[in-house]
Amino acid sequence: MKLHIPNIITLSRIPMAVALPFVQSSPAIFWTLYLLCGLSDILDGAVARLTGTVSRLGERLDTLADIVFVAVWMVLFIPAINVGRWLWIWIGIIAFIKVVNVISGLAMKKGFVAKHTPANKAIGILLFLLPMIVLWEVIKVPYIILVSLLATFAAVQEGHLIRTEQSS
């Protein structure tokens, strides 16, 4: 198996994301790694398209790296946002929908299926920006509601696509 540069970029996101909780006490290192995680998520696909190395493996690695980053992100930032129980319930509903999507993909498509839809890409960007946005208390709750609405839509849309699209 040959790892192309885009896949190496994607894989770099995993150790950087895992390192984030351990470097919280050093803001310069923390935010550098955080920004590099975001940059790697932008660059991997662009480099793959530019070099003609787009692959199913690359898509799966990107999904894995995204899952690791989002899991670390949730552990770091959701407790710090402190907007109440309603957000935890909403996150639980979204997580439940995503789990149903994974199970549907396994059952119907005989494998792990993740859709890289525009809504999923948009939610990735909005979640990435969230820690910087919530510093402005006046827009914190409206922004979180917007992100939660879009994440719900993206999860429902992904499930619909998994269950209705023909096998690829």
List the helices and strands and how they pair.
Blueprint: H1 5-19, H2 27-51, H3 56-81, H4 85-109, H5 118-133, H6 137-164
Helix pairs in contact: 1-2, 1-3, 2-3, 4-6, 5-6
> Helix tally?
6
Biggest beta sheet attributes: none
In percent terms, what proportion of residues is strand?
under 5%
- N- to C-terminal distance: 22 Å
Task: Spell the H/E element sequence.
Answer: HHHHHH
Helix content: over 70%
Structural class: mainly alpha
Shape: globular
Mean pLDDT: 90
Strand segment tally? 0
Report the uncertain regions.
none
Radius of gyration: 17 Å
How would you describe this protein?
The protein has 168 residues and is mostly helical. It is built from 6 helices and no strands. The protein has helices at residues 5-19, 27-51, 56-81, 85-109, 118-133, 137-164. The longest helix has 28 residues, at 137-164. The chain is globular. The model has no long low-confidence stretch (mean pLDDT 90).
Features:
single chain, about 170 residues, mainly alpha, about 80% helix, globular
Summarize it.
With 168 residues, the chain is mainly α. It is 80% helix and 0% strand.
